[in-house]
Sequence to fold (229 residues):
Amino acid sequence: MMRRLATLTLAALVLGAPACKDPPATPGDGGSSTGDDDGTADDTGTADDTGDTGEPAGCAPEDEAPAPEPLLWKRLDAFEGDLRAGLSLGPDEVCTEVGLLPCRDVHRLALGANEPFQANLYRPVAAPLAITPVAMERLVLSACLRRVELDQAGTPVVFTAIDPLGPDLSPGDAAVAEQIAVLYRRLLAREPTSEELEIVSALAQDTTPAQFATLACFAVGTTTELATF
Fold:
């Protein structure tokens, strides 16, 4: 009998325990009936004026999400490496200045590398320079032009959804959307959003397929997403 009474008492305590997300008690929300010495019942509602929210101990508010980590500048080796991998180009196929010097050597400082031999700079610059965006765009545009040329001359590797030598395209063509998706997968390792598809698809208006291929490649390759990590 005592064991059964203890079990029922424990069950009542568990069922009566408030959850962390229960709303706080409000004044007049039911009276407490207590027996006085004279046998009369005090049926007045009571409320706690101490500011108690009614939450049991241990139900503190959830912690705020941590602040996002700052973006890091993707310097020369990492940036050019990702660009070459996305467009399937060799080290000597990305960009050359006046057909003689690799762009990576000409723009080393602007692209975040050191230059100990020519400029006596043994440490790279701490932050992007004013000409850094121009140097990055130079690499991307040259790489995109080279990839289009290679895909026109042989078996397409990147521009597989459209024919750079084929008829003109329209922004609403399924091939245009598919080619944009291919570029996003290769360069950014994700699918484009509907808004991104709409923006890049507009480049197919009044352009040849080869021009669209170059412009779409340049648009995706010069996003901040490719230049940072």
In short: Residues 76-227 form one domain. The longest strand covers residues 34-35. The radius of gyration is 34 Å.
